[in-house]
Design goal:
50% of the residues lie in helices and 14% in strands. It contains ten helices and eight strands. It has helices spanning 16-29, 45-49, 71-89, 93-96, 111-126, 140-179, 190-210, 225-240, 258-266, 286-291, and strands spanning 4-10, 34-38, 58-61, 64-68, 132-136, 215-221, 247-251, 271-275. Helix 8 (225-240) links the parallel strand 6 and strand 7 (247-251). The protein is elongated, with a radius of gyration of 23 Å.
Length: 301
């Protein structure tokens, strides 16, 4: 994969969409090929760029395309793929009317997290030839869950694989007793094959988000107590996941203020960037975004 990956994370409403848009535009203006993807269910890119977006990339300026992922579509895809796999593996299900229970899958917990992860994997595969892929992420809870999902899934798949192997071993013993001889070469079990495929996907994602040579994570916060408290949680949880937060962006900040000094003390190992508030109006439209100076050198990314 050639692309560098930039995640913008933080509490809802702190300016993740604005900062991800700003960085993506500046990278494109510097001659890089950039894809900006909003995986936040409450999309804001259309308001910032004043363009309509959907799940297909739209060119904004030379080098920059943007899209807003439809998570409902990915939930439906996950459900459809899961049902298909069940039907192919358990071909006898019609005798037990198991198909009646497939509809309950849509009520399964964690569907939204899996949908975000599927969308993420799809984006990384489709646009791996870009120089940068920039993600505007959902608010804290959903972001932390989908970032943790690869590692959690790998633990679950390990146990599932062992359990499936135990079932196959028992089946082989029963077959040997019935036939009075050893079973011939066993065909590749489709369930173990599916598990192995999933392990490859999740291990690849886990490695990618933890590799500071590929992935940069920007924690965006405001100068208020709620934002600061949630940023502490994000820092702690992402550190526990083995991920590195590359930069903290203090949005609408007063660089020399008392709160800024407090943030420095709270995150002594973080690289702090300050994005001043606009003196007039909102940070929307290409002209306004172009007028803002980025708080770090593009070459560092």
């Amino acid at each position: 994969m050639n692309a560098r990956v930039l995640f913008f994370v933080g509490k809802g409403g702190v300016g993740k969409s604005t900062n991800s848009s700003l960085f993506a535009l500046k990278l494109a203006r510097a001659g890089k090929r950039v894809l900006l993807n909003s995986i936040d269910p409450a999309h804001n890119l259309h308001d910032i760029f004043q363009f309509p977006f959907d799940s297909k990339p739209r060119r904004i300026v030379p080098g920059l395309e943007a899209m807003e992922t439809d998570l409902d579509r990915w939930v439906k895809k996950y459900l459809k793929d899961t049902e298909r796999d069940f039907r192919s593996v358990y071909k006898y299900q019609e005798a037990f009317n198991l198909h009646r229970y497939f509809k309950t899958l849509k009520y399964s917990p964690g569907l939204e997290e899996y949908a975000v992860l599927l969308a993420l994997v799809n984006t990384l595969r489709r646009f791996a030839d870009r120089d940068y892929i920039v993600f505007d992420t959902p608010p804290t809870a959903l972001t932390l869950k989908f970032l943790a999902l690869p590692d959690v899934s790998l633990l679950w798949l390990k146990e599932l694989s062992q359990f499936r192997q135990l079932i196959l071993d028992k089946e082989q013993i029963i077959t040997r007793i019935r036939q009075g001889r050893k079973q011939g070469n066993r065909e590749r079990d489709p369930i173990l094959g599916k598990i192995a495929d999933l392990v490859d996907v999740y291990r690849g994602m886990s490695d990618l988000v933890k590799d500071p040579a590929i992935t940069r994570t920007f924690l965006v916060l405001n100068e208020d107590e709620l934002s600061l408290a949630e940023s502490r949680l994000i820092w702690k949880e992402m550190t526990n996941l083995g991920m590195t937060i590359s930069y903290l962006i203090v949005n609408k900040a007063n660089r020399g203020g008392r709160f800024a000094e407090r943030i420095k003390r709270e995150f002594p190992h973080g690289r702090l960037l300050f994005l001043p508030a606009m003196t007039e109006g909102e940070l929307t439209g290409l002209h306004t975004l172009d007028s803002v100076e980025l708080p770090l050198d593009i070459a560092e990314l």
